[in-house]
Amino acid sequence: MKWIKLLLIGWLTLVVSLFLASLSGDISAQLFGSSRDFQNFIKGLVMSGLVVPIVLYLYQHVYRMTGNKPSTPVYSWKRLYHFFTGVFLAIALASLGIIIAGYQGWLIIEDWHAPNQWYGPLLINIIFAFFYEALPEELGLRGLLYDVLRFRFATWLSVLLQTLLFVLVTIAVALIQALVGLTPGVSINIGYIILILCFGLCLQLLRLWTGSLWTSIGFHLAYLEIMRFAISPHQYGVSPIITYDGSMPELGALICVIMMVIGGIIVSLVILGAKRFIRKST
């Protein structure tokens, strides 16, 4: 039953760390009146500071349990180049979504803002999103939890179970925040649950066809920045890269999101299918 213990400890590590990270940001604001950027810095420091060393430690137990330690783990720096695979794929899919929505007249770009208006906030947010969301979540969920599940179950079932655990992390943190009197970081509804289900599935498939967690990290990070600075900047109070309008701008923005998430799933499945076909042929 060791795999169940590792699964539970890994999942609880993510839940507790995410809650403590969000709590630390609120405390710094209440006690010291810190700026939003400093709050984000504290949250990222707490999240990665807790999750990364714990998960890397738990991975040693996973290797002992499976009896196999790869020479180049999925999180190895030697696989770092796949980070750009994820980034470029997210950008390409989002651009395709904008082209499709623009062709239909749903979304029309009115203005490209000068870089001096947004590159500073974008850089700061990239650092925050990397340490608070992309790195720890991918290392814990698409890395450790998937590998523990894969020890016990088939690939397809491990992917589905990991995706459900991803959703449960978000729900559990929101419930804990509500119980202690904090405002939940996200609004839990059916639409949001469907989105993160598909997003988690996409990220896991990206890791599978490249064999690198850095692909998932890169895609995750690019997705967040595209959402915050291009698709819905008004929701995050940041300086936008583009300003758009159209006959149905909300539908156009939704098309971009769907193109990134569902497009990522389709691309991954096609590549995985092609690789499997090639292996059988040879």
Automatic annotation (TrEMBL):
One of the Pfam families matching this protein, by short name: Rce1-like
Domain of life: Bacteria
Entry annotated with the keyword Transmembrane: yes
Record-level Gene Ontology MF annotations: metallopeptidase activity
The organism of origin for this protein: Lysinibacillus pakistanensis
Protein name in UniProt: CPBP family intramembrane metalloprotease
Domain annotation CAAX prenyl protease 2/Lysostaphin resistance protein A-like: ranges: 122-223
InterPro entries reported for this sequence: Rce1/LyrA-like_dom (IPR003675)
Keyword terms of this UniProt record: Hydrolase, Membrane, Metalloprotease, Protease, Transmembrane, Transmembrane helix
Sequence intervals crossing the membrane: 41-59, 80-106, 118-135, 156-180, 186-206, 213-231, 251-274
